[in-house]
Amino acid sequence: xxxxxxxxxxxxxxxxxxxxxxxxxxxxxxxxxxxxxxxxxxxxxxxxxxxxxxxxxxxxxxxxx
Length: 65
Hints:
- With 65 residues, this protein is mainly α.
- Helices cover 86% and strands 0% of the residues.
């Protein structure tokens, strides 16, 4: 039983030391990255919508021949 507890303690100690190594982003960096993700998502959504519309018109044209 004691061996299991020491393994848990060493695991938690390792986890704690690794957690200290994390470099958290600044508010400014986080805001910039969030804005970039939102902009890229919106642009990609518009591109997909445009392609879907073009393909839909093409398929409708071919079906109505």
